[in-house]
Write a structure and sequence with these properties.
Chain A: It comes from Nonomuraea maritima. By secondary structure, chain A is α/β, with parallel strands linked by helices. Chain A contains eleven helices and twelve strands. Chain B is built from 22 helices and ten strands. In chain B, strands 6-7-8-3-9-10 form a six-stranded mixed sheet, with helices on both faces. In chain B, strands 2-1-4-5 form a four-stranded antiparallel sheet. The chains are: A alpha/beta, B alpha/beta.
Amino acid sequence: MLLRVEDLVVEFPAGRGRTVSAVAGVSFDVARGETLGIVGESGCGKSSAARALVQLPRPRSGSVRLEDQELTTLRGEALRRTRRRLQMIFQDPISSLNPRRRVRDIVGEGPRVWNLPGDRVDEVLEAVGLDPATAAVRRPHEFSGGQCQRVSIARALILEPEVVICDEPVSALDVSVQAQILGLLEDLKDRYRLTLVFIAHDLAVVKNVSDRILVMYLGKVCELAPSAELIGRPAHPYTRALIASIPDGGLDLPPADTLISGEPPSPVEPPSGCRFRTRCPRARERCAAEEPQIRRVGQDHWLACHFPDLTTTD
Amino acid sequence: MRRRLGIGFWLAVGWIGLVLFAALLADVLPLARYDETLAGPPQSGPSLAHPLGTDGLGRDVLSRIVHGARVSLGVGVGAVLLGLLVGAPLGVLAGYRRKTADTVIMAVNDVAQAFPALVFALAVVAFAGASLRNVLIVLGVLGVPSWVRLIRGATLSFADREFVLAARVLGTRDRRILWREIVPNVSVPAASYAFIGMAVVVVAEGSLAFLGLSVQAPTPTWGGLINEGRTLMETAPHVVLAPSFVMFLTVLSFNLVGDRLRSLSDVRESGLEPVRQVALTPLPVPEHEVRDTLLQAEQLRCHFVTPRGVVKAVDGVSFTLERGRTLAVVGESGSGKSMLIRSILGLLPGTAVRGGKVYLSGDDLTARTPAEMRSVLGPRLGTVFQDPMTALNPVRTIGTQVTEPLRVHLGMGGKEARAEAIRLLASVGIPDPVRVLGRYPHQLSGGMRQRVTIAMALSCGPDVLFADEPTTALDVTIQDQVLRLLHQLREERDMAVVLVSHDLSVVARWADEVIVMYAGKVVERGPAAEVFARPRMPYTEALLQAAPRLTDPVHHRLREIPGRPPDLVDLPAGCAFLPRCPYAQERCGREAPPLVANGGHPYACWYPRSSDGTDRLVEGVESGGR
């Protein structure tokens, strides 16, 4: 496994001595060349998990291993040396580029930091579909959102990373531009032999690019399975509700309002036991008393639920 | 595009340059000596030899003002630089490092700021002596707390941006991040504040000099000149007025330059900001018949006049809508779908030019004044917008906001309105409505807030509900709840709904009819099921194939629409979709296709996709286009 995450915990202070439990013990691994999708609604901790992978900020506890290197215990210069291998793309195409710098400097920053020859700037700009002759001298505000996202991708790619973490890379874009960027990511993945961690709230987008999908709810893993399996045979009540909430989801699920109710609880005081139980129609006493542990229910299909709906699983 | 700084800015820069130039070259310029008494007759007015006259001792006023500028500008520039040199590093440190550094620096800073500045200045100058150096240091030190505060705030706002995080992920060291990513961004507000700071210091120095606590005579200072001339107010007012006016102009110029620089750091202009001065002649309305239907839009237009040209945000949109139906308006950003809604409601910015007609049950809404529209907005037309937080007033309780339309439009009393508000909140699925009445918007979740705005839109029983991207800011499970609610309310109240959305799957699920917009025009229109199953216009087809669906196989290659939406100022002559269309032919560049129905639903295309979907398989998606 190229990237192995075990029992990742991320917490933030929430004032008055309380803490927000953003990520509460998440484990997964990513094989070389694979795309792992992470999906969940706002506040489920998917972005916090992504940032904990690059140690910005460092997780409260848990382990993040890049091949044989444990990242969570590295400090200072040793941690900095691992940066080239792990790059990141962000959601907001405007905010992720420094408005005062030209595209050539933004993309060329990586090589300059690492004292590498900067002659690859044109090559990566071309690879992400920008014309180096006209694009390189311009500043971010002269580009559309989709083009800015291409610049961000070029900045990440120039260091030839092994893993690229994409944190909602297309959710700020229009449908037609979103398709361009998704297609570009697939092309670049083949060309540069990348491993992707693709985070988004849109299940259809995640399914389009991911080999496996991890569903998160309130800092916990609900379900992890190969994409087709997860969408075709969802077992966790939350996954089923998520799919049913999407119009034209394809599966013959009951209406979403019978699968989920109410609103997500506060991550400052998460429910006892299973965190989804307050919105789950299948919840029983055991769900409040005992936290469901993640277990295997099928070939590479993992699940954390006491009373999963296995009717669609054969 | 270069920003216009305006003539005022350049006049101000010119004046500062002139004063600076005169101060620097005071000894070389052909001026009388500033301390030469009886250079001319005492208290004489302006003359050729003494352009600004002479003072009580017959000294040349112009020369004294020019030499006084040395002190004023010297102290101004020096004190600001001193404040900047001390304050900026502390501010950057506090804003970037945060935690302990921030706490300590800001605690000390707050104490320093609480110190009475004038008393401090008076005390220091009185004890240490009134020299140029002392005045400069006192005013400089007094400016430090403001500098720390400003630079820290600017640093904080940029340190949170994702480009700083991206730099760290690249492995950039802190020092380089500070110099390359933070400092260039902080320098613009800093430069702006420096100019405003100089104005403050020039005034402060003038005040000290007036009190006799700045540089001592015989060195002239502006404040000192005003003080000296005070006694001559009656006989020779020019002795006071000349330095006062110079000081006033200088302070004004510093402020002007500072303000313009600050506006530079604001959002970049795109050249599409409407021009303010424009003759609002309404656009002509073509012949049409008024139909017997709930809502009818006829050739609706909305244009903006901008420095780059006329933006046709909405360009000739017509439709009709019956009770109990949902009409969806679909399009990408910039297609004009939100402006269409605002045109119907008459809620356009003052710079927009509207054309066409809107009829509500045969009643012409475009003939109404904004005041007359108020009796329609609310009682007959309800609105729900994308961001419920902007639609709700953050400092008023939900109760006062929900009851307001009931009191204003329906004339209910307090008790009655409250009871009705509780009923409304319950009807939109808010648990415990009595408690929610006393809450403020920020205390509710996004989904609950949107339910409140829906309750408000419904409070007066509208005939048509306009929902502009009502669920875009919400999570998918909440989105489903809200759309389900809108649908159920439409059934219960026999309303019509106009739903604006960029999400095709939402539209396909919840709309009866759909309008597809591109570059301000309707390019396809018809029953939602039919348009989505058999799109005729290539743009609709491309949009449908570009959107990922759960039912697609994994790693399914989505249709990519090349290029980007057109520039609304510079539309191509023929079809606006031409540059991105794989099926375009020569005719498309010559004539814009009209919206016509050839035996099916209307579309605007010369070479439409076949109505049975056969050519889609033959020609494939990849053919041409790029």
